[in-house]
Amino acid sequence: MRHLPRLAIVPIVAVVIFALDQWTKGLIEANIPLWEGFAPFPALESYFHLVHYPNTGIAFGMFPGRNSISIVTNLLIIAGIIYFAFNLPNRNWILVLCLGLMLGGAFGNLIDRIQLGHVTDFLLFSLPLGGRVYAWPAFNIADACVVVGTILVGIILLFQEGKTDEGHAPAA
What we know:
four-stranded antiparallel sheet
């Protein structure tokens, strides 16, 4: 990685994430009927299932049926990531890696929304607790990469903001 210009990491990571996302969604679409699922690990059946759920909404299934809003949102996110990647004051390789995760995930979901009118969500985690089951909304590899990349960028920028020009934390 050291010999690659750091900015080249963004599209390389994005292509890898995009390919992984499209491949996993294709496997789910080909092997699990729509609205069904199964527990690939019987010992974790109470906590994890692979499912085949179409998502026409934005994040976490909010605003279902608003595919055009989702497409515009994805395009704005992609434009923001590309702008940010080209205008980084410090080419921190971890930050650049995070931008690649976010870009690949955003492209993966954008292509699905344009081609299929929805994204395929397939990872479903739940927690049985006190006679109830609490489930996180189903998601996919693209979603995970966008969320993880965004959180890590936020953490990195937060820590950079807290440093002085000398690179040390400010005195209290």
